[in-house]
Amino acid sequence: MQKEIMLEDGVTKNEGHVKEDYVDIDYTLTHVPKSAQKSWFAIFAVLLGFTFIVTTMAAGANLGTSLMLGDLIKVLLIGNIILSTYVGILCWIAAKTGLNTILLARYTLGKVGSKWTSIILGGTQIFWYAFQAAYMGKIFTASLGIEQYFIPVTIFWSLFMGAFALWGTKGMEIVAYLSIPPFLYLAYKIPAVSIETAGSIKNLFLIEPTTTITFAAAITIVIGAFVAGGTQAPNWTRFAKSPKSGLLVGFLAFLIGNIVMAISGMLGGLVMQDGDMVNILMKMGIIVMAMLILIFNIWTTNTTSAYSFGVAGAEFFNKPNKVPFVIGGLIIATIMAITGIYETFISYLTMLGIFVPSLGGLIIGDYLLNWRKSFPTIESVKFRVVRYSNLIAYILATLGAYLSSVYNIGLPPLNGILLAIVLVYVMNAVFKLLGLSDAHEVPEGAEVRF
């Protein structure tokens, strides 16, 4: 028998010769080791670049036609404080455990139950990718007057942007650093042109909207604009050097990025009374400059989206290699991008604001209340197929968020988060009272990841 010895970096030595195995540098299915942790600034740059997203501008532009500026500011602040706090707590858990969102969900929902997390988060990121690829195709062809070439141009950009996700977090850092400075210019230019068009800042507050929307529905759209991305922020903050760093980076990146993006779109939509960002940019006469800036912006966010659905696919099929799933997701997203996904944007944001927050709330509640803020290492746990107590809690919390949107009770995203946190503890207690075992098997003396 030949003796096989595992060396560092996945290299296996076997009696005189060495063979190379695939090395998962993204730690897709395990904890991030201390040796792979990154500086807070590198993570902050990626997340800030992630939030500098044209779709948040588009959501803001749509709201800009429906509310007066004073109400828009209230909606923006309330929605983003809720979203950023939610993201910050998830990032704190990720930095503490070194696990991405989908692996956190494995503790919460079980080995097969967590596959729903892979489906919903991977699926939402494919939708995001498709919408932004379509947006890139539209703005590129509109600015150059070649609308008849929308399909080939969209296909080109979709595949080009996705290629950078194959590099992992390093590729995303490079694109993020390139995208932030020029996009800050656009975030300045749109408000500046809006104020000039209105005549003064005071006049902005006097503009009457042409459509209407409820306060709760508007906040749901603000949160829905990036709640799916925020739920996956742990994919990057798990590399943070401390839980405090993860929390602050997640909270501040989302608060700053989303407010800057949304207010730019809101002012453009308010002044032009048009909910389509491409139309707004054309009316402002900055379409060509905006095109150059948006290339970097959409490139950044779509690279991170492709990375996210690659990680989701890797967990779903339990394969420590995201590459084939990035490629598969790109094919699906590209098909969606050229077949009309652009027209369903606002309905999609509303749905995300109702159905996704309860998932993050479930992970938060389970970690804080049931696991008491410490996980045994993922390698030491024998996971149940499904944790039914938490699955029931998720279904009830999502139903509660949906009904609150139908009957206009409170804020649906916040309702979903809070209901999930409470119900995950309540259902766990109910199962214990009924004598039903719903816990994973953890051997005595198992290593704990604090």
UniProtKB/TrEMBL annotation:
UniProt keyword annotations, A-Z: Membrane, Transmembrane, Transmembrane helix
Species assigned in the record: Sporosarcina soli
Family from the record: Belongs to the purine-cytosine permease (2.A.39) family.
Entry's localization field: Membrane
Top-level taxon: Bacteria
CDD domains referenced in this protein's UniProt entry, alphabetically: SLC-NCS1sbd_CobB-like
Transmembrane segments: 40-60, 72-95, 116-137, 149-167, 174-193, 213-233, 245-268, 280-299, 323-342, 348-370, 391-410, 416-434
Record-given protein name: Cytosine permease
One Pfam entry name: Transp_cyt_pur
Alphabetized NCBIfam families for the sequence: PRK11017.1 (NF008241)
Entry keyword annotation includes Chloroplast: no
Topology in the lipid bilayer: Multi-pass membrane protein
